[in-house]
Amino acid sequence: MPVFERVGLITKRGDERVANTLRRLVTFLQSAGAEILLDADSARTLPDFALPTAERAAIGADCDLVIVVGGDGTFLSAARSLIGYDTRLIGVNLGRLGFLTDIGPEEMAERMGEIFAGRFVEQNRFLLHCAVLRDGKTLHETDALNEIVVHKWDHARLIAFDTYIDSRLVNSQRSDGMVVATPTGSTAYALSSGGPLLETSLDAMVLVPICPHTLSSRPLVVHGSSRIEIIIRDGELPEAQLAADGGAVAQLLPQDRAVITKRSEQIRLIHPPTYDYFATLRAKLLWSRGA
Fold first, then answer.
1. Quick check: pTM over 0.90?
2. Residue of 182, 227, 230, 229 whose CA lies nearest to 205
3. Alpha carbons 44 and 171: distance in angstroms, whole number
4. Nearest Cα to 181, choosing from 219, 237, 216, 213?
5. pLDDT tens digits in sequence order for the chain, 291 residues long
6. Which CATH number covers residue 46?
7. Within a domain: residue 86?
8. Number of other CB atoms surrounding residue 55 within 10 Å
9. Looking at the domain assignment, is residue 204 inside a domain?
């Protein structure tokens, strides 16, 4: 009996490398005796695979492991769609950096062999929930594994907003926006905006201003239970937008509020037994090169 009896497969769409990687993965899973469900959206771009298909909800409910074949963007999308289901996720990297999809195609058979033999590292990662409020009414709600971002759009000018934490004013600023990231997302947009790296087990969030119009504005790390509120200032043109994990969610008008909190549900990630967070940082961020 395999460690994982029912396995869901979610793939990146529009990438010619997916089919070859998926064929090898399916061969391994079948030899391991696992029952396979292919994501219905993925199947539409993979007509040659005669596998049972299912929608994401069914995959989350029925599978004890979901393997994502693609880059970190594909993984983020898969993770958000599986919130609330007690399934584990692992990624095969066909992207660039691969902080979340940490198995390379060339080592896939070896690593999957270890995992299906019960040798793996498991981590829980928390997500953010964001509600956009206008005149006291909730207009939009969204979730993110990496980050929620309030940012300018359309014009090359700064936006003005106030930031509150647990109903206390932190600051008022003009900038290109603000990144609110989880520890998982601290290596993504938050890092490129000058934020610190947060070890993934921390119960914390980081607020990182994007190109602030003051030299004294710095990233701020707060407890994971914090309630973060970003309010677009009066008199500003409607040039602000809210995004979750890189995807646009809503246009923001003056006095709109983005309320960001931690979700109670977490995502269960697994890694090969050789996984080491700091080794990943060294490899992906090219630390110690030439030292």
1. yes
2. 182
3. 48
4. 219
5. 568 999 999 999 877 788 889 999 999 999 999 999 999 998 887 777 789 999 999 999 999 999 999 999 999 999 999 999 999 999 999 877 788 988 999 999 999 999 999 999 999 999 999 999 999 999 999 999 999 999 998 777 899 999 999 999 999 999 999 999 999 999 999 999 999 999 999 999 999 999 999 888 999 999 999 999 999 997 656 679 999 999 989 999 999 999 999 999 999 999 999 999 999 999 889 887 765
6. 3.40.50.10330
7. yes
8. 13
9. yes
Take residue 287 and report the two structure tokens written for it.
Answer: 């630390």
In a domain, 290, yes or no: no
Instruction: Give every CB contact of residue 51 below 8 A, 6+ residues apart in sequence.
Output: 9, 26, 36, 37, 38, 43
Cβ atoms within 10 A of the Cβ of 182, count?
A: 26
Is 72 labeled as catalytic in the residue annotation? yes
- CB within 8 Å of 78: residues ≥ 6 apart: 10, 56, 66, 68, 89
Query: How far apart are alpha carbons 210 and 166 in whole angstroms?
Result: 22
Domain that holds residue 220: 127-264
Q: How many residues does the chain have?
A: 291
Same domain for 132 and 252, yes or no, is: yes
Which candidate in 48, 62, 64, 72 is catalytic? 72
93 assigned to some structural domain: yes
CA distances from 282 to 7, 94, 286 (A): 31, 19, 5
Do 256 and 132 lie in a common domain?
Answer: yes
Angle between helices 108-116 and 17-31 (to 10 degrees): 30
Query: How many distinct structural domains can be found in the chain?
Result: 2
- In angstroms, the CA 197 to CA 190 distance is 9
Radius of gyration of the chain (CA): 20
